[in-house]
Specification:
Elements: E1 2-4, H1 6-18, E2 25-32, E3 38-45, E4 53-57, E5 60-64, H2 66-72, E6 75-82, E7 85-91, E8 97-98, E9 104-106
Parallel strand pairs: 1-6, 2-5
Antiparallel strand pairs: 2-3, 3-9, 4-5, 6-7, 8-9
Length: 107
């Protein structure tokens, strides 16, 4: 379904600990919007809902709702640092194109 790199898992763990909620997980969502049609949303969540898929990787949990799972199938969640900044990066094989700023995609 979705794979999580060790680098991303370490960043998730650090952020959750810093916020005082090491028991939470990361929610990955796809929402309509952006100039290409869909946008990724990441947020911390206390627990999964009954309909969520739960991915456990490198000591962290990632929650994906069923609607988003369709668009995220086969994706990889990574965390990258570079000269232009740092952040989570989703490598999605289902995305057929992205907008110029890279914030949205279409399938």
């Amino acid at each position: 379904m979705v794979t999580v790199t060790e680098t991303a898992a370490e960043k998730i763990r650090t952020m959750l600990t810093d916020q005082g909620h090491p028991e939470y997980g990361l929610r990955m969502m796809i929402m309509g919007g952006g100039c290409s049609g869909f946008q990724y949303r990441l947020a911390f969540d206390k627990e999964a809902s009954e309909a969520d898929r739960v991915i456990e990787a490198h000591g962290v949990r990632v929650f994906v709702d069923m609607k988003s799972a369709i668009y995220l199938m086969g994706s990889e969640l990574d965390y990258v640092e570079g000269l232009m900044g740092a952040g989570f990066k989703i490598n999605n094989p289902n995305a057929k194109g992205t907008c110029g700023c890279g914030e949205s995609f279409h399938v």
